[in-house]
Every structure is written in structure tokens, then in C-alpha cells.
Design goal:
The structure holds two protein chains of two kinds. By secondary structure, chain A is mostly helical. Helix content of chain A is 72%, strand content 5%. The chains are: A mainly alpha, B mainly alpha. Chains A and B meet through helix 2, helix 3, helix 4 and helix 14 of A and helix 2, helix 3 and helix 13 of B. Bound molecules: CIS-heme D hydroxychlorin gamma-spirolactone (HDD) and protoporphyrin IX containing FE (2 copies).
Chain lengths: 445, 341
């Protein structure tokens, strides 16, 4: 196969793998802070145990997130050297600042993990807060580079391809940075909330739990549902702003996301279905009249550009419509699920029935799927450009052979590691079940 | 100083830091493997106690090194990436196995042995791969087809200098880690581990120096430029050897309690030995990044980006100093951590 295609496949799958662990690395420290703070306020040792067990899980996943992050960090230069040539001149700052975010996270993570018992509570909370800040900052900074690729700023390219008029701060604060950074952060928090809810719900579905274990898992589930409801709502509101950003700065991507071919006012929103090139519309979709115009500009008569404004060779693949719908669909479902759950708990004051618990179990994996779909939408929706309207993917990629071999090698590695991490997590938490930890606490530990 | 010269000095400084940290990391992993099972000394405990809180930070320094090269010298990425894709790709593959297995080892009881040996062995191959990049930059292993650089694997793999570089990298990593862990064991007052590591330092020291000198002798014919430069900088390399002699000889000093070796002095002298050697080597390597195709000045980024980056480095490391001090106190000084069972 073509070297460029191979390079894209290798890099895309590496990021798709990294993002699973990276997202958890961004969100889980925040959940741990919540548990630590609740313990501090309520003095209920269940919360301390929660923090401890989540930290264990975090430590196992962290190894993979750092290893895979190192892979993508190095691979981006190896596979897209011409892209990095421009990045190095224009948008190197976030890459460098990110290093310090990693260092802060690494130093305080070790402190929190291995010096926990020697620290006074205040220093313990400072440590885990630093971990969370480091992880969130690293997500925001790498997203800055990604945002700049979508809406490049802070430089000009001369006709013979040289970079001039560099303004690093204009590049850092490029038009889509703000909304995109918030979207990535919120969606990571929300994903981890639903993952925690999944695990707690899975445990609660078991029949033979002791009263104490049941209490413990219920508390975890409550935290997760509250945090999930807040963050999923916020993600959607901010996602709406992200779409408006596309309308303003990247209308071609919005047109592809919505499968819109002709520029119109009063454009309708197509939910579901697939974009058909022959029919120049989205087939088998639910149409909501005027909704797209309203979403894009808060008015029904907003003019939304269609794909036919651009030559076909500049269109991204049309299936990005599906990716976009998967993300938005899952986001909407999870808002409904979490709000309904809180309604059930506080207004109806009833225990969650098994079918609702089963829905929670599905929530975590669904949120991860939304993350993957969202990123693939954003990166594939940028095609054929690596830097929008500046550098084509074909010119950015390496010309070296051997990429195919590396692709096979790394794909094997990722699949293996997915299984092995799952296995190690299971085996660790099987050997150290909640019941055992609760018992040892009663024993006066 | 000229901006590009400042940039390459920072790169060599980062290489220095990473070569020390990486040696400790991979070396400790190796000793942890060797003394892992059924051994009566505590050498493995000491190695692992050092490794657990530090591997993450060491890994970040590897990332810092790569990111700094790419961002300071963006015009070097094309040539580096086309010749190094496969070796670095393999290195990343092994690094991932080693990192994940090392952490999994503590969480999966049943497979501890397999995980430990895999992470120890991969940890040995990684420094070998990393140092094999050095001879490539000396010249003679690249060819251009249609303006596109390629690495001549056949020539590289059949050249003795590759293997001498690898031997040099391994002996250095093991020597530095043995010296350091000896000091670490002393802090922990773990004398069986102390004697184990001292014993290894005693034979690894001379071996690593002899290999280092022999390696220069195997440089490819195209590298006569750097050999000339090294000869004209002989004073610096001599100073490095002097530090080695100091560090090595204090291993034999007998102390009041009857034990031999001033561990802390040895660590400092050996760090100075490698620091001086690396800067001298870096100076001899000027003006090339890759001989004869790429010079430091050609690869350099635009000054408009370089100076903000420098400020970021200064602020970043400034903020982190208190964190590093706290870290040092908790894991390298605190008896409660060092002496736990
Ligand atoms: C749990 C995950 C999740 C959920 C529920 C949502 N998103 Fe999202 N979205 C992401 C996770 C995500 C992401 C993976 O984090 C992306 C990929 C790139 C980025 O910046 O964020 C993203 C990108 C992204 C983009 C593209 C930005 C670009 O390419 O520049 C748009 C327009 C939206 N989102 C809009 C929405 C809307 C209207 C949502 C309504 C519910 C929504 N997102 C929910
Ligand atoms: C938006 C997607 C991403 C998120 C949320 C994210 C987040 C994270 C997190 C939380 C870590 C663990 C940090 C630590 O504990 O030290 C990490 C590691 C890393 N990430 Fe990502 N990352 C993303 C994409 C990328 C990309 C695209 C690159 C490179 C181009 C990258 C490079 C790295 C590197 C080099 C590391 C390892 C740092 C170390 O050695 O500690 N990441 N990332
Ligand atoms: C972490 C989640 C991410 C995922 C799952 C992801 C996914 C992908 C995929 C599937 C591709 C291939 C697109 C194609 O060629 O059709 C790609 C390309 C690329 N992505 Fe992303 N991406 C992510 C984040 C990022 C970030 C944060 C950056 C910026 C630093 C980035 C930079 C790139 C680059 C440079 C390419 C290659 C050039 C190109 O195809 O445009 N990606 N990514």
C-alpha cells in the first residue's frame, strides 16, 4: 500500500490507542480529588478507600498512557517530518510547555503513590491536585497544536514554501483553541465519570453483596452520576459552541459533518443516515427543519455553506457525518441517562432497577466510543489537509518505506496491551476485592 | 553566544541528563532482574525501590530530549526521520514493553517472573539501540537516492564501530547504575546490597573506560574529522579520565567502620567524568548534526520562536525546582522510605 496511507494508519491507530488511556489519565485524578475531599468533609472512610482503589487503577493505566504517549510524541516527527518542520518554527511552544505539565504530573504522582502514608492530609491533597492540573494542562496544550492545525494562525507561507511573519502567540491563541480545549477537557471528565459509573453499576448488579459493599458501590455511583450529569451537559453546550466555531472558521468541515451540499439559509439538520454522493444529500436521516441554521448562527435564516462551494478534491471523506452523529448521539443519550438517574434517585426516591443499572454499565464504553468518534471526526474531517489550507497530508508524510512493517508491529502491540491491561486490572482487583479492604478497615487498619 | 550554538548546547546538556537518568533506570531494571529471584542479597529490593518512583520522570526526560531536538532544529526532522524511522520505531516498541511490564509486574502476581525478565531484557536492548544512533551521525552510513536520504543498513551492521558503541553504551549504563545504587544502598544502610553493587562497580569501571577508548579507534574512515577534533580537545578528555580515576580510587578508601568506599564522592566524580566527556564530545561534533549533510546552523529554527522557548524552559524548570527538592527528600533521603520492608 501507499506509504502515505500507511503513515496515516499507523499514526491514527497510535493516537486512537493513546487516547483511551490518556482520557482516563485526565479524568481519573479529578474523581480522586472528589473522593479525597468528601473524605475530608464527611470523615467517611469509604471515600478514603475509593480514593485508594482508584489510585491503584490509575497507576496501572498510567504506565500504558505514558508509554503510548511517548510513542505518539516521537512518531509524529518520524512520520510527518515536513509537518514538524513548520510546527517547529510556528507552534513549538505548546509542545514544550506540555513537557512541564508531564513533569509536574510525574513528580506528584510518584509522591501521591509512594509517599501517601508519610504525607499530612494537606500535602496529600496538594499532590493529587497537582496531578490533575498537570494532566489537564497536558491535554489542553496538545489540543492547542491540534486546534492550530484546524485553524492555523501566526505565520505566512511564501510562494516557495518558506515560513515568514511568525507570531508565536497568535499561533498559540489561534481561533479555535479556547472552545476546543474546553471541549476536550470536559469530554474527558465526563467519560471517566461514566466509566466509574459503569464499574459501580456492574458490581451492584451482583446478587451476593454484603450491606457494606453495596453502600460503598452506591456512594461511588452517586459521585459518578452527579459529576457525569454536570459534565455531559457542559460538554454538549460547549460542543454547540464548537460547531459554531466550525461554521465561522471551518465551514467545509461543518458541511461534511452535516452532509450539506448546497449553500442555503433555513438549512435543516439531518440526524443519522449516510451521506450519498450521487443524491447529494443524507439518506435515511431524520430531518429537523431549520435546525442546522439555528445551531450554526442562532437564527433560522443563517446561511450555511454546502460542500459544492469547494472543488470535490478538497472534500473530506463523506462518512465523517456518521462519526459526528455517533459523538453527538452518545452525548445526548448520556445526558438523558444521567439526569433520569438523578430524577429517579431524588424525586422518586427509589432504588435503581437492574435495567437502569445495565444502562449505566453501557455508559462508560459509550463515552469512550464518543471520544474516539469525535477525534476521528476532527482529524479525518480535516483531510486532505494536515494544516488546513496550508499543508496537504500527502506532502507532510514521510517517504520512507518500512512504514507497513511498523504498522503491523504496533497494531499487534496495541491489541495485546489492551488485553493485558484488562487482564492485569481484573487480576489485581480480584485479589483485592472491596470486601477485603472493608474488612481490613474494620480490623482497625 | 550564537543562538544555534546555545540551542545545541542545551541539547547536549539534555543528552547528558538523560544519559545519566537512563543509565540509572535501565541499569536498575537490569540489576533488579538479575537479583530478582531466590537471591540472598537485597540488591533487587534496592534497585526496585529506586525505580518505582523515578521511571516516570526519566521517561519525561527522554520526551524532553526528543521534543527539544525537533523544536530547536525543525529542519533536521526530515533527514533524521527518514534514516531513523526503523531503529527508533523498534526502540519505542521495546520501551513500551519494558515500561508496561515493569509496572504490571507489581500487580500481577502469577506472571511476575515472565514480566520481570521481559522488562529487564528489553531494558538492556534499549540503551544499545539508542547509542547506535551516535555512529550514524559520524558520516559514511548515508546515501542519497533522488535527494532522499537512506541508511545503509548493510554497511552499518557490518561495521565494528556499531558494536563497540553498543558495548560502550551497555558498560556505561551498568557502571553508572552500580555506582549510584551502591550509594543508594548506603543511604538505606543495606550493606549486603552495598557490597554487591560495589563489587560490580569495581570490574565495570575499568571495562567501560577501556571500551570507550577502543571505540574511538573503530570510528569509520569518514569520521576522521571528529577524530581530529577529539585529538585537539585532548585536555578535556584527559580531565574526564582524571575524574574517573578519582571516582574509582575512592572505592578503595577504608572508612572508620571498616567498610571500603566513599560512595557519595564516587557518584559525584563519575557524574563529572561523564559530564565533561559529553560536552567535549559535543564540541568535537561541531559544526555538524549529521556529517557532512546537516550542520547545526542549517537545522536551526527561527529566532522568533527560539527565544520564547528559552523563556518557557527557564520558567518551567524554575517552577519545578521545589517539586524536585520535595521529591529528593521523600525518595532519596527519607529513611522511612529507604528502609521499609
Ligand atoms: C465524550 C465525548 C464527547 C461528547 C459527548 C461530545 N463530544 Fe464533541 N468532540 C469530542 C468529544 C465529545 C472530542 C473527542 O474531544 C473532540 C475531537 C476533537 C476535539 O477537539 O474534541 C470533539 C470534537 C467536536 C467538534 C469538532 C471540532 C473540530 O474539528 O474543530 C465538534 C463540532 C463537536 N465536537 C461538537 C459536539 C457537540 C455539538 C456535542 C453534543 C452533544 C458533542 N460534541 C459531544
Ligand atoms: C487530546 C489528546 C491527548 C490527550 C488528552 C493526552 C493526554 C496525555 C496524558 C494524560 C498523558 C500522561 C502524562 C503523564 O502522566 O506524564 C500523556 C502522555 C503523553 N502524551 Fe498524550 N495526550 C493526547 C494526545 C497526544 C498527542 C497527539 C501527542 C503527541 C504528538 C501526545 C504526546 C504525549 C507524550 C509524549 C506523553 C508521554 C509523556 C511522559 O513521558 O510522561 N499526546 N498524554
Ligand atoms: C488523541 C486522539 C486523536 C485521534 C484518535 C486522532 C485520529 C487521527 C486519525 C484517524 C488520523 C488519520 C486521518 C487521515 O489521514 O485520514 C489522524 C491524523 C493526524 N492527526 Fe490526529 N487524532 C487525535 C489527536 C490528534 C492531536 C491532539 C494532534 C495534534 C498534535 C493530531 C495530529 C494529527 C496529525 C499530524 C495527523 C497526520 C496528518 C493528517 O492525516 O492530517 N491528532 N489523527
Amino acid at each position: 500500500m501507499d506509504v502515505v496511507v500507511m503513515a496515516r494508519a499507523l499514526f491514527g491507530s497510535s493516537l486512537g490507542f493513546h487516547i483511551i488511556y490518556a482520557t482516563i489519565g485526565v479524568g481519573l485524578p479529578v474523581m480522586i480529588i472528589i473522593a479525597e475531599v468528601l473524605y475530608f468533609i464527611k470523615k467517611d472512610s469509604d471515600y478514603a478507600l475509593m480514593a485508594r482503589r482508584w489510585t491503584k487503577g490509575f497507576a496501572i493505566l498510567l504506565a500504558v498512557s505514558i508509554a503510548s504517549g511517548t510513542i505518539v510524541g516521537v512518531m509524529i516527527s518520524l512520520l510527518f517530518p515536513n509537518f514538524m518542520e513548520i510546527v517547529g518554527q510556528v507552534i513549538a511552544l505548546p509542545f514544550q510547555m506540555e513537557i512541564f505539565a508531564f513533569l509536574i504530573e510525574a513528580v506528584f504522582m510518584s509522591i501521591y503513590l509512594y509517599a501517601r502514608d508519610r504525607l499530612p492530609p494537606s500535602l496529600r491533597i496538594i499532590s493529587i491536585v497537582s496531578v490533575a492540573l498537570g494532566a489537564t494542562a497536558s491535554a489542553i496544550l496538545i489540543t492547542d497544536v491540534h486546534a492550530w492545525m484546524n485553524t492555523p494562525a501566526g505565520f505566512r507561507i511564501t510562494p516557495d514554501g518558506d515560513v515568514t511573519d511568525i507570531n508565536v502567540w497568535a499561533a498559540v491563541f489561534n481561533p479555535s483553541f479556547g472552545v476546543t480545549a474546553i471541549h476536550v477537557t470536559l469530554s474527558a471528565y465526563m467519560t471517566v465519570a461514566f466509566l466509574v459509573a459503569s464499574i459501580a453499576a456492574l458490581r451492584l448488579l451482583k446478587k451476593n453483596l454484603s450491606q457494606k459493599e453495596r453502600q460503598y458501590h452506591k456512594k461511588a455511583l452517586t459521585i459518578a452520576l452527579y459529576f457525569g450529569a454536570i459534565t455531559s451537559l457542559a460538554t454538549a453546550i460547549n460542543g454547540h459552541e464548537t460547531a459554531q466555531m466550525l461554521h465561522e472558521y471551518n465551514p467545509r468541515k461543518l458541511a461534511a459533518a452535516e452532509g450539506l451540499f448546497e449553500t442555503t439559509t433555513h438549512a435543516s439538520l439531518s440526524i443519522g443516515g449516510y451521506t450519498s454522493l450521487e443524491d447529494q444529500r443524507v439518506k435515511y436521516a431524520i430531518e429537523i427543519p431549520y435546525a442546522l441554521s439555528f445551531l450554526a448562527g442562532d437564527r433560522f435564516d443563517t446561511e450555511v455553506m454546502g460542500l459544492n462551494e469547494w472543488p470535490e478534491e478538497l472534500w473530506p471523506p463523506l462518512y465523517v457525518h456518521i462519526l459526528f452523529n455517533v459523538m453527538v448521539g452518545i452525548g445526548s443519550v448520556l445526558i438523558v441517562v444521567s439526569l433520569f438517574a438523578l430524577f429517579y434517585k431524588h424525586i422518586l426516591k427509589k432504588e435503581f432497577p437492574p435495567w437502569l443499572l445495565a444502562l449505566f454499565v453501557a455508559g462508560g464504553p459509550l463515552a469512550l466510543l464518543a471520544i474516539e468518534a469525535g477525534w476521528c471526526f476532527s482529524c479525518i474531517g480535516r483531510q486532505p489537509w494536515t494544516i488546513t489550507d496550508v499543508l496537504r497530508t500527502g506532502e507532510a508524510a514521510t517517504k520512507s518505506g518500512s512504514v507497513g512493517f511498523l504498522f503491523a508491529l504496533f497494531l499487534t502491540l496495541y491489541v495485546t496491551l489492551l488485553f493485558v491491561t484488562g487482564f492485569v486490572m481484573r487480576s489485581y482487583f480480584k485479589r483485592n476485592p472491596v470486601s477485603k479492604d472493608l474488612a481490613s478497615e474494620e480490623g482497625g487498619l | 553566544m550564537e543562538a544555534s550554538l546555545l540551542a545545541i548546547t542545551i541539547i547536549w546538556s539534555l543528552l547528558f541528563i538523560y544519559s545519566i537518568l537512563g543509565s540509572l533506570d535501565f541499569g536498575a531494571g537490569f540489576w533488579g532482574m538479575i537479583y530478582g529471584k531466590g537471591n540472598r542479597t537485597n540488591a533487587s529490593h534496592i534497585a526496585n525501590r529506586f525505580l518505582s518512583p523515578t521511571w516516570e520522570i526519566t521517561n519525561v526526560f527522554l520526551v524532553i530530549f526528543v521534543v527539544s531536538i525537533v523544536t530547536f532544529f525543525p529542519f533536521a526532522t526530515t533527514i533524521f526521520s527518514s534514516i531513523l524511522l526503523v531503529p527508533i520505531g523498534l526502540g519505542l516498541f521495546l520501551l513500551t514493553i519494558r515500561t508496561t511490564f515493569m509496572v504490571f509486574e507489581h500487580h500481577a502476581k502469577k506472571y511476575r517472573e515472565v514480566l520481570r525478565i521481559t522488562s529487564g531484557l528489553t531494558g538492556l536492548i534499549i540503551p544499545a539501540l539508542l547509542v547506535s544512533i551516535l555512529p550514524i551521525t559520524l558520516g559514511g552510513f548515508l546515501s542519497f537516492t533522488d535527494d532522499y536520504p537512506r541508511l545503509n543498513y548493510g554497511e552499518l551492521l557490518s561495521h565494528p564501530t556499531l558494536y563497540m558503541h553498543i558495548a560502550f553504551g551497555l558498560s556505561t549504563a551498568l557502571f553508572i547504575s552500580a555506582i549510584f545504587l551502591m550509594d543508594y544502598a548506603k543511604e538505606a544502610e543495606d550493606w549486603s546490597a552495598y557490597h554487591t553493587f560495589r563489587g560490580h562497580a569495581l570490574w565495570l569501571g575499568p571495562v567501560s573506560i577501556v571500551i570507550a577508548v577502543l571505540t574511538i579507534g573503530t570510528f569509520p574512515a569518514e569520521a576522521s574529522w571528529i577524530v581530529d577534533n577529539i585529538e585537539s580537545l585532548w585536555m578535556w578528555f584527559g580531565l574526564s579520565i582524571l575524574f574517573f580515576l578519582i571516582g574509582y580510587s575512592v572505592l578503595f578508601v577504608k572508612k572508620k567502620d571498616g567498610r571500603r568506599g566513599l560512595a557519595r564522592v564516587a557518584v559525584i566524580a563519575i557524574i563529572l567524568q561523564y559530564g565533561v566527556a559529553i560536552y567535549a564530545y559535543g564540541r568535537a561534533h561541531l559544526p555538524y548534526l549529521i556529517y557532512p549533510d546537516l550542520t547545526v546552523a542549517d537545522g536551526f529554527t527561527s529566532p522568533a520562536t527560539f527565544y520564547p522557548m528559552l523563556i518557557i524552559y527557564a520558567i518551567g524548570f524554575g517552577i519545578l525546582i521545589p517539586a524536585f527538592i520535595l521529591f529528593w527528600r521523600l525518595f532519596l533521603k527519607d529513611r522511612r522510605y529507604l528502609k521499609q520492608e
